[in-house]
Amino acid sequence: MKVFSPIAINGMRLKNRFVRSATGEGMANPDGSASDRLEALLKTLAKGEVGLVVSSHAYVEKRGQARASQLGAHSPDMEAGIARLARIVHAYGGRFVVQLAHAGLRADPEVTGQAPLGPSVPEDDTAGQAMEAEDLARLEAAFGTAAALCRDAGADGVQIHAAHGYGLSQFLSPRTNRRTGAYGGSLQNRARLLLEVLGAIRGRIGREYPVLAKINSDDFIAGGFTSAECVQVVSWLEAAGLDAVELSGGVFESGRLNFSRPGRIAIPDGEAWYRDTARTVKAAGVTMPVILVGGLRSLGTCEDIIASGDAELVAMSRPFIREPGLIARWQAGDTAPASCVGDNLCFAPARSGQGLYCVTEARQGERPK
Prior knowledge:
- By secondary structure, the chain is an alpha/beta fold.
- The protein has one domain (2-364): Aldolase class I (TIM Barrel), CATH 3.20.20.
- It has 14 helices and 13 strands.
- Strand 3, helix 1 (36-47) and strand 4 form a beta-alpha-beta unit.
- Keywords: Flavoprotein, Oxidoreductase.
- This is Oxidoreductase.
């Protein structure tokens, strides 16, 4: 099957096409450094034959921290912990990428001690502030510095988080970006910060180090970022030197059409939520690898996506919370769909700092696979 075949992303060779999509684990130490629990979690994923393990969103500066117990890449003190995570994934033949993020207006002021910064202040939010020129410059530099830290720590690459209504996603969306001037208005202006972040990273780590991005295929909300805009931005990102793009979708306010749609998924008709956009991206001439996430539960659908050329890699999040050994199980011949029921109960312990685990599995008294 093609889904079990190797692939390279700018020299980063993966043993298969399966990606653990960045998932907020809530397992970092209070200072943002990697904990023993986080290391153990990534070990289970690598042992489970996930070809590429992407960390949860790691904040690049303190003011961009989304919540407590979030992984950090904002300080030299974080390098040793990220190195531990890279080593444990490498020990089992996997590759490790750190997702770099700034929460923007979703930053938690109780954690950061400062008012959140974003493209513009929402009408219903008096606490947030619009970024000034110095804030934009500091953010871009922070992404570059964080990427260099991850490279020096032994991570195989970095991923820019520009999805799900966090900082860079807020700039892309006309719903949250009501700026005028160079960073607001037209799509080109709204995409400017994301492209400059990519440029800042390349300026620090060069062209040979893999840089990926995660972007919404659609915000699925009135006035938000659209599929057509996604196709254009992905084309610009490739021209600017991006190595691979992961297509996701939705923001927290999208209701049932967000990036973690609740409920069991019909197989195969209910799978691969963003496949149409992936197909359009490819039709637009994008040649860099596309990673497709969103509602994947069966080996057959994963294989069909790769075999059809709609995407080069497939990613999952919640299925790996329930079954970190899912890919190993499929490889061994047990091709039953992922056992994740999509109840989203796993979010509560991750957000509380208790740490990510499948609540449903624990209530049923099952042993982790």
